[in-house]
Structures are given as C-alpha cells and as structure tokens.
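On clarity, I found the account of how folds are encoded harder to follow than it need be. Since the whole study asks how a given chain folds, the encoding of that fold should be made plain. For illustration, here is how one protein appears when written out as sequence plus structure tokens:
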Amino acid sequence: MDNKNIQNLTEVLKKLNKHGVTEELRKEAIAIVSDINPIELSIAEQNLIEQGMNPEDLRHLCDVHMEVLSSELDKIKNDINPGHIVDTFIAEHDKILGFLTELEELNFEIQKIQDYKDNLEEIKALNTVIDNILDAESHHQREEKVLFLELEDRKITGPTRIMRMEHDDLRTKKKALKEAVENVSRLDFNEFKEMVDKASKYIIFNLRDHIFKENHILYPTAIESIKEKETWEDMKRRCDEIGYCSFTPNI
C-alpha cells in the first residue's frame, strides 16, 4: 500500500470538494487515480471523513473517478468465479438496474395521466416494480452483515460507512413510494403524481450512483483486501443463512 499515493489523492479530493472539477484538478486527479488501487482510494476517502469532512460530500463520485474506474467491473469479473458472493452481488445489481429503468419509464407515463381510475395498468405495474426494488433488502442485509463487517474488521470503514448511510436513505424513499401507491385512491391525484415523481427520481439517481460505487470501489476493495479462500467460503455460508432476493440468479 503506497502511503504517498493515499496522501496525494487525499489532498486532491480535498481540492475537488472545495473548488469543484477544474481542468487542472481533473488532470491531476486522473494521473493519481489511474495509478491507485481500490484499497488506497477507500483509505483516502476514509482519511477525509476522519479529518472531519461530511460523508455526504463524498457520496457522489466526481466525474474523474467515474472516468478512471469504468473498467474496474470487468477486472473483478475476471478475478472471481460464478457463485462467489461478489459475483452474486453484481448479478443482483444488474437486476436492480433493470427495475430502475422500469421505474423511470413508468414514472414518465404516470406523469402524463390526468385523472385516477381504478385498476390503472400503470399503477399496477408501478406497485410490482416497487415490490421488486423493496425485495432487494436481503441483498443489502448480506452486504451490511457479511461484506461490510469483514472490511471493517480489516480497518476499512470509510466506504462502508457511506454505503450504510445510503442504504438507510434509500430504504426511507422506497417505503414512501410504496405507501404512496397503496394510498393512491385516497390521495389527490396530482399530489400522488408529485410524490411518485419526487421519490422515483431520488431512488433512480441515488441507487444507480450507489450501485456504481459498490461495483467499482467497494467490491474491488474487498477482492483486493480479502485474500483468504476460507474467509470467502465462510462469508458465502453467512450469506446463505441470511437468504437471497426473489430475483437472485441461480448461485
């Protein structure tokens, strides 16, 4: 682990959060991030949190990170076998991303409807896709109770702290969207549409962003830091005990 890399990236992240992405900072960040591994990136972010930076300020990776990290997922897939818990997490993410696309399309259609009528197909479909998104809870539980704990035991706490916070935020928004659909017949329809629009857009944007960070930062960090085959096997056993989503591919 290169402490100089970590220190340099920590300083660049401070500048990016303070000044925004200037072309000069962008080039500086790309030069550093291109030569840094996921653990070092995680530690740099952790350093900033420990120095007092609000985790909120690190929640959305800057465009520089996105640009450099875009190939990380392919690297992970080449390093693990089918059935590995990270492979399962990634496969579940693919399903969830599909649900988010459905939600985006349904919200667009619902916003065009003028009046509520019983048994609207769009409302039924919205209820189904929300249930699918809510069904991802066992995915989050496996992350929090197995993967995150293992990383935290290895003193990697910054990324998991941010991911837990995002899980909690998203749980609240998912439940609010579900409640809106359950009460559609009792709500003013324009009020209902506004609630759906606001919650859907929040969930779509933030969950896509969350998935990107887990796929490209958290999971590579885990693969890089947990080398023992026996540990992964024990983690798989613990994941099995928690259970899987209805949409989890065969594992």
Summary: The CA atoms of residues 121 and 127 lie 10 Å apart. The first helix runs from residue 3 to 19.
